[in-house]
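Shipment paperwork, digital attachment
Item: protein structure file
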Amino acid sequence: MPDTKEVDASDFAAKTLPHLGDLFCTAVRLGYTRSAAEELIQGVYLQAQKSSCCRRLTANCRACLFSILFSEIKLQHRRSSNLSGECDRRTPELSHNPTGSKQPRDAEMLAAFETLPLSDREAVLLADVQDFSIEEIAFILETQEDTVRLCLSRGRKLLREAFNRNSGTRIRNKGSGVERDEDGRSNL
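Attachment content:
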């Protein structure tokens, strides 16, 4: 059973600071500009300092931070929708790559990713980019595990279709046993 004693400021920083880069990348991938993402992450960090879940040394600190991030995003969306009828998201940047390495098809994959409905995009991002489990994603998005599974299945299928349509190449279904060349013909 994890230790649940309150931590001091230095322990809290040591536990949470390593995750801020992932939070920032997630905000950017969800359509925030760099400056808007920085402001969002500052708010998330302040909320985490107040949160009892993040103020305790638990293995779920990362999931708690992402839960606060998605709660803040939903809150901003509601506030801006009530004020102006539009979401507070800015023009999306195609990628944030802190290591500087770039895959040749990143732009195509990100363009396909942008076509997903928001709920599917959030689930795919948390599962496939941030490596959260179904249970953790359900906690973060405040939904049921079955809903997460549905969003993942649908999101991955739509992402595969959008990428195939945009790039002219084919991504095969995992385990389908059929490989396709760039023209979409099977190699059987």
